[in-house]
Amino acid sequence: MTEPLIDEQFLQRLARLRFIVKGRRRSRITGGHPSPRAGVSIEFADYRDYTPGDDFRYVDWNIVGRLDRVLVKTFVHEVDLPIYLIVDLSASMHVGSPSKVRYAARLAAALAYLGLRNLDRVGFYPFADHLLPAIAPRHGMHQMTRILNALQDATASGRTSLNLVLKQFVERTREEGLVFLISDFLSEAGYEEGISRLAYRGDEVVAIRVIEPAEAEPVISGGSRLIDVETGRQLDLTVGEKTLVQYSRRFDDHVAALRSFLTAHRIPHILAPTNVDIEELIHIRMRAHRVVQ
Amino acid sequence: MILQNAAALSLLAFSAAIVFLYFLRAHNRRYDVSALFLWEGLYSDPHSRAARIRHKIEPLLLIQLAILALIAFTLAAPMRFGLATHVSGLVIVIDGSASMQTITPSGKSRYDMAREQANALLDQYPTSPVTLIQFSSHPQVLAAMGTDRDQARRALSASQATLFSDGDPDTLIGLLDGQRARSVQERIVYLSDRPLLPSVPNVEEREIAGGLNIAITGFNVRQDANEEGVTAFVRIENDSTGYTDARVRISDGSQQVSLDALIPAGQEQTYVLPFPGSYGPVFTATLLADDDFPIDNTRYFTLARPHDRRIRWIGEPNRYIEAALRACGPMALVEEDDREPVDVTVVYNQTAPADVIGSVLLVHAGLTGAVEIGTDEPPAGLSVSAPDDTLLAGIDPFDFRIKLSPDVSADEEGTVVLALGDSPFLYYLKQQRRQIVLIAPDIMQSNLPLTVDFPVLIRNILAMLAPQPSPPTAAWATVGEPLSLAGYGTPTELVSPSGEHLAIEGRAAFTPQLPGVYTVTTDKGIYRLAANVDPTESALPEDAVAVSSSQSEYRAEQITIPLWPEISLLALLLLIIEGAMYQGWRIRGRRR
Questions:
Q1: Which residue has the higher pLDDT, B326 or A6?
Q2: Tens digits of per-residue pLDDT, B93-118?
């Protein structure tokens, strides 16, 4: 029997958190996130001159008495924001113990719970070399069950093709939202185009890079045959200390390139090594990036 | 340990080849990586291989070397020394006497523990023919030699300790010989709580100990001389580890007396309890103490009251003879015309008819068809023809002075004990259904009535003609020991302490199987007989069962046991581990 992704105690510790959404979002559905439009909420926004038809209840009579001007109070319009969980299920995510895909699934489950608990709509979009069958954003704990079932059964296979996948995602979802992109970002074809699309549409993107510690510091030595788990390509290499130093440098460059790209797009970049506890990741690292509070 | 084929160890030389091949291994190790593009174009470091070989000895290599060593060792045929697990015959003798019912501190009885040891022996010798004997005063073969082993186990588990006494070592020898045991090739194990005394050669004794006992080891009741009650004698033994405050209660069924006794550990003490107003005849002594062998906490005793001898008198009365008869015990005189059966017919100074039924004492009298007496004449000198005869027990016949004695014509089949010249003085004849004793002289023409030996002579004669039951409770009737009913008459009914009617008709003895009071009904009356478990079962052996296998002459055969199966198994196990490790590494390498 497969080990459950999350347990009750873990969820209870997540209950007090909520996502931070920077900027105001457009949506036709009233919710918990601020909108550029004024509306009805308890958060005061501004005053404006009374125009016929305004609700008398919003006339500020103290201002009328003091300035002899009839002004009405306007409030922040809070809208509902969909949360998209885009999770990489390519073959490279199968590496590690626990595997990266398992770690990503647990993280996605925690984020889904967090969103649904704050009355947001949460959708689940797995991908490999293309976008896999998704779960459209919905409210309620039934949605949690659907997402958990999908995550529980998630297996990694296929190649990573981030640009294509994110293009498909933007085409499929017309509503901007809070996008958690959970992947190892080890896509030979790159990721820049796809992420740019998201940013252009106005999605608030959080990039979470799942890495296996052995990827950063591989325990490989001597005559080795390296096999790419996604493509099956092979490379014979005699690995020595110099080789490993060179590899580490290249890996760090890859991470740095991603970070600089994301920073340029004001996208938080969160490293998630699989040996770091999910709770620590959420409570410390994601808080540090002001993704949750 | 010895190696039968030490040359096989030369295979260890192949270990050098393994190491050599290992270092020369050409193929690369497989690693699965997430992104090969990160590795492409990296600097290949050929010097690292040698470095790795130098500094890292792989567990797989060590396992392979171990496997090679084990295979070489297996082929060298190692043997270890051990004791044989097979004997030509295994004889297990379990003490089934009452003391084996004692509960040990483990909560099991000694018999249960003996049974466990017996089962362990059966396990130890899985292929040897087995004989199981339950040994007591009534030994029983539970499983004869050659019995199916499962059947023997079933018989063993079904057996229970008895209430009988310890068996006699000679009986055990007979049993073992009967089972064709006692050869040195066979192992005979005796499981008991006390040693065989004397020990039996070739029998290995094993101690089954445990349990503390406080027991009544003696119980007797005697009628007071003034006939106003009885006095009870109780002996209590404390085989526990400390002082015991024991309470003894003696009951006759309607009244009881009790006694509190403080008995030191290992001591035996006797108490006398007056029991006025009690006449029994059944007495029960109960010890109120908490111990591990409760059977001996209750003892039974019965006072046997002799029945009246019924005596028919024919002829003139004679007060000397009658007084001597009464001195032998209660008697009832039956009229000559009374046709009731009697124990003895006494004929004095007369010739009795031939149809007299039963035993006859003739005093200066004849019996038609058997004894004829003539006229009295001065006798010749007294001679003793049968000095060892029971009729003369305690008698000095030369004290007798005979003035006149008749000439006697008697059946020559009879025995002349005393003679006066050629004529018998004291004579007896044993016929099929009766006995006839003759005192030939007229006692009134002799000094017999005046001698102290005359009542003794009459007692001896009555003991021959009409024996009274000896008091059976003078000593305890022991459970498992045959109890004679001689003198009680012809038994018609026997009721056990549990109320069960036992077959008794026509039997002269019975063996009590339970402690308690048996009721025997005979044509002479109803008798109550007490039976108890043998008191020797209560006492712990003095030497604390210092038996050991040193008494055994069993010679355990030393044999060599091959070790190759275990070593091969170990090699196979290592082979599996090596395979699993190799596969594990491959899988892990792919994940990387």
A1: B326
A2: 899 988 888 888 888 899 999 999 89
Contact B34 A240 (CB under 8 A): no
Computed over every residue of chain B, the mean pLDDT equals: 82
Of B371, B482, B375, give the one whose Cα is nearest residue B436: B371
The partner residue sitting opposite A223, judged by closest CB among B32, B49, B591, is B49
The H or E element spanning position A124 is: strand A121-127
Q: For chain A, what is the radius of gyration of the CA atoms?
A: 23
Chain A positions in Cβ-Cβ contact with residue B29 (cut-off 8 Å)? 222-225
Please report residues of B whose CB lies closer than 8 A to that of A186.
34-35, 38
Which 3 state secondary structure label does DSSP give B133? strand
pLDDT band (50, 70, 90) for residue B551: very low
Which residues of chain A neighbour B49 with C-beta distances below 8 Å? 222-223, 238
Nearest residue, CB atoms, A222 vs list B42, B43, B49: B49
Of B28, B49, B592, the CB nearest to A236: B28
Contact yes or no for A95 and B34 at CB 8 A: yes
Q: Do the Cβ atoms of B35 and A94 come within 8 Å?
A: no
Pair A118, A19: CB distance under 8 Å = yes
DSSP state letters, B483-518: EE-TTS-SEEEEE-TTS-EE--TT-SEE---SSEEE
**ipTM confidence:** 0.77
In B162-253, alpha helices (H): 169-178
Do strands B309-315 and B344-348 pair parallel, antiparallel, or not at all (unpaired)?
parallel
Determine the Cα–Cα distance for residues B109 and B352; give it in Å rounded to an integer: 67
pTM, full prediction: 0.44
- Indicate the angle between helix axes B149-158 and B110-124, nearest 10 degrees: 170
Tell me if B360 sits within 8 A of B437, measured CB to CB. yes
